[in-house]
Structure formats: C-alpha cells, structure tokens
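Reply to dn_fold:

You asked what the input looked like. This is it:
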Amino acid sequence: SPRLSFRMASKVSEQTDLIYSDTQKTSNLRNGGQVEFNFRHAMSRLGLKLGASATINKGSYFTVTGVKLTFPDTDVAGTFDLAAGKWEEKTRSTLECTLSEEDFPYRSNIINQSNGTTAKEITGDGTYLMLIPTERPVKVTVTLYYDVATIDSNLQAGEFAVSNEVSDSFEFTFEAGKSYYFTLRVGSNGLDISAEAADWDTTIEQGWESETH
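and this is what came back:
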C-alpha cells in the first residue's frame, strides 16, 4: 500500500486539506474511457462562529481581535495509508493555532445589540483549521481576545473601550472526514462554547481518460 508521511502546519493559512481516492469506490465506468474517482478527506475541518452569550446593552459592542486555539497533546504528524484510508504511526505534540482580526470576514467580529443573538461565522476558505483526526478525546483551550466599547457622547473620542481576554478548556474528539464548528459566545460572565459536527462533503471528480482497446 502506498503511504504518505504528513506533518501539519501550525500556521492556519498553510494548513492542507489532504484528500485521497477511496479505492473501494473508484470504478471504471467504461463511459467514454473515463474513470470516476471518489475522493475523501483524511483530515478534520474546524470552523468558528461568534455571538453573544446574553443581550448586549444599547450603546455597547464587542470587537473580537483574535482567537487562539491550543491543543497541548494532539496528533501533529503521521503516516497515511492511501489504500486503506487510515492514519498510522502518529506523533503527538503541542499545537497552537491563532487567527487575528485580519483573518475575519468584514465586520463578522463585531457584536452589538442588533446582531448579538445570531452567531456569525468568522472562518472561511484559507482560515479553517485542518486537523489530523485524533479518534480520542484531546484537550482544547480556546482563548478569545476582544474589546468592549461603550458609546458616550460626553467623551472627546465619543466612546471608551476596555481590552479583555477570556478562555475555556474542554475535551473533544476529532474524526476523519468530519466538519466541526465551535460557536463562541462572549459576555460579561466569560465565554460559552458549543460544538456541532457534520459529514464533510465528498469531492467527486472525473479524469484520466484512456483509450479503450
């Protein structure tokens, strides 16, 4: 079986969506000499959503300036069996991934009274975390950096802001081919985190035209 040595990058923009062809579902359709390849994701994908944990007072708003995810003992490298579609000989270490304000879609990191109850996605193409599946519970620490601003016409600047940092830790299991979202809800009492999971879409492409003899 062909095997691939793989090490994931800690910088989110350099992480790779490793896909492979499922040999059990790859078939020669004998249709114009085309072969259909059924590709699957070898990684787990993690996205982030942002909202408020309680109603925000009128005239106040939150601006998230960064998110850091720390995995103190997770799988960061391994060998992938391309035929069997399985990870082998995985190496564990500490992984730290950071998203800054420049990584967020325009204004998605600003929470106010009108939009605070609806969680908005702050990740997308190029900023999803691509993780080697753990298949076991691993510790995750999420640290959120944000400013709390209050509009006040009596001040020369029109408002004042206070910078805050809040974090929460929990255990989570990442499975291959699964897409996850962590919803981060920030408020005066700290940080609430919930998670949701779904099957990742399978990519199907056609190619490798061959002559029929």
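Confidence is low (pLDDT under 50) at residues 203-213.
Hope that clears it up.
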